Amino acid sequence: MSLDYSLLAGVYDELYGGEQALKHEAVLTRVAPEEPVLDVGCGTGLLLERVPCYCVGLDLSMEMLRVAKVRGRVEHGDLVCGDAERMPFRELSFRTIYSVTVLHEAPLALDGILRLLKPHGRAAVTMLRKRVELLPELLGKLPNAELHDDPALKDVVVVFGKA
């Protein structure tokens, strides 16, 4: 990990909340949440706060999850401390999966997302624009993916489903 999110947990929302809100709007607009929902790398729960149905937030940082809990961001769900590259869920468990600004830090998370996504499920993931060299490999695993490159975002958005 390039940042120690445990050290940033208390100030993360102030530092990155506005930027993340734009990304969250982008993924929610492209993929409407259908429960159960998984947010891989949920951090302080900013996206979870906007999901109106049952959702699970997964993050490696217990401190980030504590902030999410204290701020009451998971009204309709649960928080799980775990590694995005080794997600502790049964296959085909989620109808909707989001992962915002995580794949450049945990590229194997995409394999887990594909394993966890139910048939006819949809996912939206983002990747920092400055790490687009990773996109060909990601898109190679997702033959029917839609790439959205909005210049207003620091990330590119990739939307895909499972037949």
Proportion of strand residues: 25-35%
Give helix % range: 25-40%
- Low-confidence runs: none
Q: Tally the helices: what do you get?
A: 5
Structural class: alpha/beta
Largest sheet: 7 strands, mixed
Distance between the termini: 32 Å
Biggest sheet: strand arrangement:
3-2-1-4-5-7-6
Residue-averaged pLDDT? 93
Using only C-alpha atoms, the radius of gyration works out to 14 Å
How many β-strand runs?
Answer: 7
- The oligomeric status of these chains comes to single chain
Q: Overall 3D geometry?
A: globular
Please render the helix and strand layout as text:
Layout: H1 5-8, H2 12-30, E1 37-40, E2 55-59, H3 62-70, E3 77-81, E4 94-99, H4 109-116, E5 117-128, H5 135-140, E6 146-148, E7 155-161
Parallel strand pairs: 1-2, 1-4, 2-3, 4-5
Antiparallel strand pairs: 5-7, 6-7
Describe this entry's structure for a reader.
With 163 residues, the chain is an alpha/beta fold. Helices cover 28% and strands 26% of the residues. The chain is built from five helices and seven strands; from the N terminus they run H-H-E-E-H-E-E-H-E-H-E-E. A seven-stranded mixed beta sheet has the order 3-2-1-4-5-7-6. Helix 3 (62-70) links the parallel strand 2 and strand 3. It is globular, with a radius of gyration of 14 Å. 41% of the residues are buried.
Task: Pick out its properties.
163 residues; 7-stranded mixed β-sheet; 5 helices; 28% helix
Short synopsis of the structure:
With 163 residues, the protein is α/β, with parallel strands linked by helices.
